[in-house]
Amino acid sequence: MRHHRDDIVERAVRVLDDHGLASLTMRRLGSELGLQASAIYHHFPSKQVLLGAVADELLARGRRPRAAGAWDDRLVEACYELRDAMLAYRDGADLVATVYAFGLGAQGPAEELEEILADAGFDESLVGVGARTLLHFVFGHTFEEQTAMQAGSDGAVIGDAALDRTGDFDLGLGLVLDGLAVHAPAGRRVRG
């Protein structure tokens, strides 16, 4: 059976979710597909390129329609979508943040955050910094949250370390948005 690029990404997503990022090797993926690992390189020149495609697939699966109009509400939607997309798959936060940091994919959320800030009229010097600050918050918080949840479900930690941190995410995101609001263009809605 001949496999296509999409088949390989689909199986890689399953391996990631079932076994974790450390187990997502070309050898294991080839075995899961009934292929030699070298056959995967026909579609992906390196494991890093494959991981970029997997991260982009996780983000695509997490896309939701947008409803908000105000810039800060649009940022909240985008940040929650990113968080939820990463939490939906085992080691999703680790994968997406790493792929983004290495410039191998997962650029969509950054581009959307920059677009929202630019559309709101933020100074050009703040658009990139504001978007990266939001990304760093979402990546870092979600990585910690996912790691604690996975450790808790594996029985590795108990008590407060395994608690749901959604409330912390809400508060932290609000703090970042309040900081951005200080620099919002005159006449733009300020969080209240």
Task: Give the SSE layout.
Elements: H1 5-19, H2 26-33, H3 37-40, H4 47-61, H5 71-87, H6 92-101, H7 108-119, H8 124-153, H9 166-182
Helix pairs in contact: 1-2, 1-4, 4-5, 4-6, 5-6, 5-7, 5-8, 6-8, 7-8, 8-9
Summarize the structure in words.
- α4 packs across α5.
- The protein folds into two domains: 5-45, Homeodomain-like (Arc Repressor Mutant, subunit A), CATH 1.10.10; 66-182, Tetracycline Repressor, domain 2 (Orthogonal Bundle), CATH 1.10.357.10.
- It starts with a helix and ends in a 10-residue tail after the last helix.
- It is an all-alpha fold and 192 residues long.
- The chain has helices spanning 5-19, 26-33, 37-40, 47-61, 71-87, 92-101, 108-119, 124-153, 166-182.
In total, the number of strands is: 0
Order of helices and strands: HHHHHHHHH
Enter the CATH topology name of the largest domain.
Answer: Tetracycline Repressor, domain 2
Low-confidence segments, ≥5 residues, pLDDT <50?
A: none
Question: How large is the share of residues in beta strands?
Answer: under 5%
Radius of gyration from the alpha-carbon trace, in angstroms? 19 Å
Largest sheet: none
- For the record, the CATH architecture of the largest domain stands as Orthogonal Bundle
Continuous helix count = 9
Classified by CATH, the class of the largest domain is: Mainly Alpha
Distance between the termini: 58 Å
What's this model, at a glance?
With 192 residues, the chain is an all-alpha fold.
Keywords summarizing the entry:
192 residues, mainly alpha, Arc Repressor Mutant, subunit A, Tetracycline Repressor, domain 2, 2 domains, 9 helices
